[in-house]
Structure formats: structure tokens, C-alpha cells
Amino acid sequence: MVTNFKSFGAIHITSLLFPIVLIAIFIFLGLKAKTDRKRRLLRYILAVLIIVIRGTRYVMDVYYGVFEWTDLLSLHICHIDLVVLVICLVRPNKALFNFCFLVGIPFALSVALFPGRNHPAPGIPRAVLFIMSHMMLVAGALYLAIVERLKPSLGGLIRLAVLGNVCLIPVYLVNRIFGTNYLYLMEAPKGTVIVPLAHVFGWPGYVAVLDAVALLCMLFMLAMGLLFHRAIGRTLLKSPNR
Description:
The N and C termini lie far apart (48 Å). Helices cover 70% and strands 0% of the residues. The protein is mostly helical.
């Protein structure tokens, strides 16, 4: 176990860069692909890679005796995003893409950039897989936006915002009944950037702050997504191979 993982050190940066390089290759191949069959195959391979990286982390946890079955049934945003993204890669869907792009990217990226200091055995290898698995969620959504030309919508954002806040109630009840901490509604996880928020705003104040930050991130991602398609839709996204 490691309790002092160094953010933005050599290991952290390498873990961030590997998925970036990998998805750049996939995007290049996807834009060059001349048939739907080839693009579909690339999506399938990417979905498998995302599952393998996350699955390797679980296998490691089992080996070192730190695996919990609740990990497979997790209600954390990034775990939900993993499932939704894999489905969207297998069968692109605009509604599912809204979740992957507007919610999945900012949440997964924040975790990858600020992975915390504490990581269970075997320490560094586990931290590397943790960071990479979250960066792959960002990579998969970007692939769908660039190669498959999916884009977020304001309607999708509104539906996600309403549904997300409504779902906080059942998630809170699940946490109370089973003693879990899904969505970090019960307490701030130790060794994370959420702890200072909890110290300043207390509970449930820090939850309200996180909710507001999440909405701002979604608005930012919507703006970036729409600007992205408007600005370069006639160049990169309008590939002659399509």
C-alpha cells in the first residue's frame, strides 16, 4: 500500500499520457477508416481495452485481498460511466453519449488528475491502473465525439441534471442501509481534494458544493462540445472518407 502518492510526478504523468497516446492512435485510425465495419471494429476493440484495464485492477485487488463485491455494483459516477460508455461504444447512442461526455469526462478527468495519496496494495501498480482506467473513460467519450460525430445537447444536460439530483435520494438511502459511501454523500473520502471542502462547508454543505461544481462542469463541457463541432466540424469531423 502507498499512502503518499505524488500527484503530477513522473509516474502520475506517464499514467496520464499513455491513454492519451492510445486514443490518439484510435482517433487517427477511425478517421482514416473508409467503412462502417472498420469503425465498428475499432469501437469494439476500444471497449474491450477499457474493460481489460479496469478488470486488471479488480484482479489485482482480488490477489491482494482488498477486493470488495460492492465495487462491481458501485453507484459511483465513474463506474456508471464505464458501463454506459462500453454500451455506447458497442452501439452509439446520443442519449448515452450525453452522459459520457457531459458527466463522464469531467468526473473521470478530475479523478485521474487528483487520484489521492492512498492506494491499496501493491501500491504504485494499483495507482497506475486507477489513473489509466479513469483516463480511458475520457478517451472513449472523445473518440465518440470526434470519430462518430456525436455531440452533447442542452436538452440532454437538463435531463441529466434533474435525474442526477433526484437519484441522490435513493443513493443516500442505499448508503444508510448498507453502510456505503456512494457518490461520497456520507463523508469525504480521506486523502482526496474533497476533504478540504468538507472542512470548510461541513456536511451536507460539501455535497451541495460538489453538486454545484458538477453542474458548472456539465455546462462547460456542453459549451466546449458545441464549440468543438462548430469550429472544426468542417475540417477534422468532415473527413472525405466518411
